[in-house]
């Protein structure tokens, strides 16, 4: 069997035992609170893990782009939520093709988007499920008030080929109460109009263990929970020992006493800081700081670290943000402990549209 | 002929006329100063542009990783400089295989690296060319003093299968004088030891038009000059109208008066700020600011912009850093004016090792 020493660096390692534990822990939590999970596959982009999520009890998956949904449908996934405004003739045609094959639902946050969907989907016997996206504090997409959600729901419900399926939000991390308030108000207002939502879909890993506190929500879409990362650990979702994705890198230079250069730069770790100091956590070197990245070099400041790695030494790095790392590598290497199980292509990598 | 309106977004556009003008301008400058160019292909990762750079007069190309060099060698490029510390049995074997096929040279900045090269390359009749990397102010890899460069050069020259070929630096932007001082001192010290360097290779686009001020340098390795980007424009290397690479995106949401959301996030533009405010420049909207990116959404603040784009409108964005954008997309679309010429795979994308 291959060991980690046989691998060329930089490379992405995914620890299968940790993946399984993270998936099981979240599903147990969801089951305990009777809150269906609809995991977001953007983190792993791998059909095998999407299937495992469903085996464990997930009601379906979430994809962020049509291209991801197409890959997952090709791999046999039959229930996909695409919480995105699908715009333009070509994308609407692709959505229609998916709708012919699998159960797919989308979101809208404006009349413009609903109009496009209504023109494309006209069959009252095979309606497209459309949820209204709500901005409950994130400041990204979404209608701004519960009343605007009702108005858009009415427009959806009035279109012969569309079914108003409910509400969706991606909440701001930490704003559990604001999120709950918005959704409760919208739900009540919808019910008053005879438009009770089938589903109220909430999301995110940072507040995963508080998902049941958003009482209005009827499903949750965590993504990063499968791998976790330095940011999620900082948010308290798990520990460093739960992180399943690491980048294996080699120290290629030790120009000074307190500087080490590794062969993993922004092409391996990305420049995402998510507001944190540095570009990742080096396993076994808690006081070493990754202070700079160029494309193919990472610069480590060892001034605070008594332990100093030598040239040629291999380091495992927990990235700040696992999802964006998955998107950089054509392949990831699945491991169990220190043994290599298999290297697999990241099937939905780079699906930007 | 296809027009930009026929393309799905987000997508990377590369303007061939601007590419040609940027390449020609740099080659003219280099010719005027009798300074050979050895362009870095990390920016474009496309064999066709590497070949064009050579047709215009470049003496060879630069790659940052073995995988990039392998792609370029497969495409017919015969002279490649790989300014990287190649470490480990597997990578040394790949380097050896390249050395059998093409003229390849590498760098070293420590005895550890030289030892590995010396063990692998032992044929005095087919020596590997090795340059000493010098840290002239960048704070990344490289020997720290001119005297350390001499010491390492002696070690290289003493190895039967290695040829000491000279010095290499990637200088800190703006530190032209410090760079020149280091290289002049090292050159003089080497000559005093009978180790006159064949080549002193300097790099970078930010100081491209000052490359001839580094009198010790005998070649220059610009990379980003082919496309330019928002950072290089800020450095004064060119204007916004010279930027050849743009990301075409669609406005998918206008949740508030002053917020627009586009379908290009960090998976299209990357989180690289390079110390600048925001994540790119929107052509035609000089006062709009891209203030946030999540993976598939870009958030634009329009509060300072009288002109406000509508949902469905397409925007062209000059990214902060063109090289990292090239690495995200499997394909780029070559254009001339507003006409689509061809969509081509980014052959050396994702070659991380």
From TrEMBL, chains A, B:
Domain of life: Bacteria
GO molecular function, one term: D-serine ammonia-lyase activity
CDD domains linked to this entry: PLPDE_III_LS_D-TA_like
Domain D-serine dehydratase-like: 244-336
GO biological process, one term: D-serine catabolic process
InterPro entries xref list: Ala_racemase_N, D-amino_acid_metab_enzyme, D-ser_dehydrat-like_dom, D-ser_dehydrat-like_sf, PLP-binding_barrel
Sorted UniProt keywords: Lyase
Keyword flag Lyase: yes
Keyword flag Lyase: yes
Family, similarity comment: Belongs to the DSD1 family.
PANTHER family attached to this UniProt entry: D-SERINE DEHYDRATASE, ZGC:162816-RELATED
Protein name stated in the entry: D-TA family PLP-dependent enzyme
Organism per entry: Paradevosia tibetensis
